[in-house]
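Entry type: protein chain
Record version: 2
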Amino acid sequence: MWLGENMNVDYIIVQAGGKGTRMEKLTANKPKALVPINNLPMLFHLFQKYPEKKYIIIGDYKYDVLEKYLRTFAKVQYYLVDAEGKKGTCAGVQQALKIVPENKSFMLIWSDLVLPKEFAFPEKSDNYIGISTDFRCRWSYKNGVFEEVPSEEYGVAGLFILENKMFLSSVPEEGEFVKWMQGQNKHFSSLKLCRTKEYGLIAEYNKLKKEKCRPFNRLIIDGDRITKEGIDEQGKKLAIRERAWYQLAKARGFLQIPEIYSYDPLVMERVHGKNIYEDTYSHAEKEMILKKIVDALKKLHDLDQEEVNYFSCDNAYFRKTYDRLNQVRDLIPFANQKYITVNGKKCPNVYYFWDEFEALCRECVPEKFVFLHGDCTFSNTMVNENGDIVFIDPRGYFGYTEMNGDAAYDWAKLYYSLKGNYDQFNLKRFILKIENGEVDIQIESNGWEDMENFFFELLPKECTPRKIKIIHALIWLSLTTYAWEDYDSICGAFYQGIYHLEEVLQLH
């Protein structure tokens, strides 16, 4: 022990093996470490907290998914170790220790722990064991003794900070790590894990408030005011566009937006009402609301017009989708097949039909550009206390063009909620099954599918059902990397995209 020195922990071993069966449907297609918690995969909370550390990640169940996902999205130094079917929390630890240099301190942590902002490594070098204070653990550590006795006050949480790897020199290839530790007669200093969360059970996951904003945004609610700000480069860029859109909409006299109190930071009125998907309406009420939304969007589109920017159309409809899909291709099961069966329908795989897909996108070029919302889903459309429509979260761009774009894109975004049930999908209210060479995806309903024909009757004549359906399909396909925080959402968005694309491609 080196008393008086700060403990320098540069290496973190993450035990990310195991099937995670207690998480039920959430781990059907991916390892537990990739289950999203507050808009980030569990594992990525560590990456975010300690971006400069070196990670040794132990994988087993759905190893190929973990490998491909990390390769695509991880921005930290990491080395992936395959536990190769070994069982228990000891599995893969031997292999992981080989990566840690001699006489270097390291942390060993289970992947289902999410550390709070205030957690810090101890200053004094020692061997530490993390003790839970907020959740029940199967093992306890009290007065230097391990016992298989459930405890909240002295629970063994699954976090160890060790001076060097010699401490674990005799760890077995498999078996339960804590049970093995019980027989080693080794001393630990206790480290209280206040406000640390464990997500090993689906019950804990279900307690989470379902986030409506993306991982690059933060919402602060203070009474009747909401402050919205970007928290990373992408979020800050989008925030600039959103502020500019609100300023211009207000200047042009468009009233169906929240009251804006400040533009930098963006502080706005908290609209008292509900997002449309959050309420139940009669058939007549839905017709009335839908007509109000369509009328409001028509009014918005009439505020400005300009010549079509063909480059923006090509970017928004084809190039962006092409680039995003290529980014996630390795993650998509059956991406190497020409056709994929989704919900019993044989669907052309867009990866094999780029030319045909590009031709469809070219069909969507409009005669003019108009002032656009850009993201008028049910999630961004509210009915206030007076029954008026209020739009929030504008996109503020289309392709390379600021503010203006193809009106059909707005109509397709609305269709995305009405027919596609995007809002439920965004809240992870769907079940994705990938088995026996087929895909089945079931999304909870917003309850508006019966409005499809009425919706098309309300649209301008240039926005044909075919055009709306083409754009709707490509919006799903583009969502794949936008929803990067959840593997199931990436795959689900892709399968939804090709499912709806089949209706207009009709290639068999």
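Comment: The domain at 9-206 is CATH 3.90.550.10 (Spore Coat Polysaccharide Biosynthesis Protein SpsA; Chain A).
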